[in-house]
Amino acid sequence: MVRNEAYVTLLVTDSYAPGALVVANTLREYGTTREIAVMVTSNITEQTRDLLKLSFDRIIDIDKKDSGQLNELSLLGRPELGVTWSKLAVWQLDYDKVVFLDADVLPLRLVDELFDRPEFSAAPDAGWPDCFNSGVFVAVPNAETYKELCALATSKGSFDGGDQGLLNTYFSSWATSAPEHRLPFTYNTTPTAVYSYVPAYRVNRDKVAIAHFIGTLKPWHVQQPFSSGHHSSSQEEKLDLVQQWWLTYNRYYGTKPTTETAPLPETVTVAANDESVAANASSTNPNTSSSASQPPKLPVFDPAVPPNSKVKPVFPWEQNRSEICTRVWYD
Ligand SMILES: [Mn+2]
């Protein structure tokens, strides 16, 4: 293992734990030579920490930092993102280099080459490509940088109320910086973005290294968010990455309790007709299924129909949500 370099993600709420766990498990499965760490705030429960311990090399307690900039956050439509200032703790870490990944990303292959990049490296934001998206970036922890970021947070704040606005102000030369600082969009592809260049997605789909599920609806929130009517068929095409998240998640956790070893792959499938759907579960091993040619449907849950008993809760808060398991996690 390469010393003093790490992938780092952040957990400020239990409800993002499924995402963080998928990040850790994929990086390990792809054979990374770097440490895999998660920064957690004090509100993360013991139950979640126990799950994290099984997948991460290191759990790092950090202070919760909230911008409290409700005006800017409401402009962004994401009042909950003030706490993402906690991400600044990256520059306090004792690593020589960090590849930071949001918990809502899905690495699709080994991306250790990112450690060859200098600080600060990131990919363009789909909504304003002269800004970078702060869901994937390369940083070099440094106490002075951390101090300056905190000073900037106090003096100017963040133009979007979250970490991305603040970091874009601090690393404002990124847009005109040398090519090595500018990661290809394939390292931070945002299939759930409102605007997307679908033909480009179609020709570059196989090059996507990291998918980033931006927006309030995360893959683990999927109830029926992507059914027909919400998106054009061309937009739905790129949502196969949401399905990919579920296939990956189920590969590690299936429906078995996560404290057990050797997870049994099990895929949640649904009837073809969205209108009359029930949430069925079938034991499907992704390794033997023909999912490559015909991806299964997104997991859908209809609250009116009790789910198949095979869909068992995996996470503690899944059980707490309601009497019937939805496999949908919320705060
Ligand atoms: Mn994100």
TrEMBL record:
EC number of the protein: 2.4.1.186
Domain of life: Eukaryota
Key word Metal-binding present: yes
Entry protein name: glycogenin glucosyltransferase
Transferase as UniProt keyword: yes
Localization per Swiss-Prot or TrEMBL: Cytoplasm
Catalysed transformations (reactions): L-tyrosyl-[glycogenin] + UDP-alpha-D-glucose = alpha-D-glucosyl-L-tyrosyl-[glycogenin] + UDP + H(+); [1,4-alpha-D-glucosyl](n)-L-tyrosyl-[glycogenin] + UDP-alpha-D-glucose = [1,4-alpha-D-glucosyl](n+1)-L-tyrosyl-[glycogenin] + UDP + H(+)
GO cellular-component term (any): cytoplasm
Family (UniProt): Belongs to the glycosyltransferase 8 family. Glycogenin subfamily.
Composition-biased stretches (Low complexity): 278-293
Organism taxonomic ancestry: Eukaryota, Fungi, Fungi incertae sedis, Mucoromycota, Mucoromycotina
Cofactor(s) in the UniProt record: Mn(2+)
Molecular function terms, GO-annotated: glycogenin glucosyltransferase activity; metal ion binding
Region spans: Disordered: 278-313
Organism: Mortierella isabellina (Filamentous fungus)
Enzyme class per UniProt: transferase
Gene Ontology biological-process annotations: glycogen biosynthetic process
Keywords attached to this entry: Cytoplasm, Glycogen biosynthesis, Glycoprotein, Manganese, Metal-binding, Transferase
Function field: Self-glucosylating initiator of glycogen synthesis. It catalyzes the formation of a short alpha (1,4)-glucosyl chain covalently attached via a glucose 1-O-tyrosyl linkage to internal tyrosine residues and these chains act as primers for the elongation reaction catalyzed by glycogen synthase.
InterPro entries linked: Glyco_trans_8, GNT1/Glycosyltrans_8, Nucleotide-diphossugar_trans
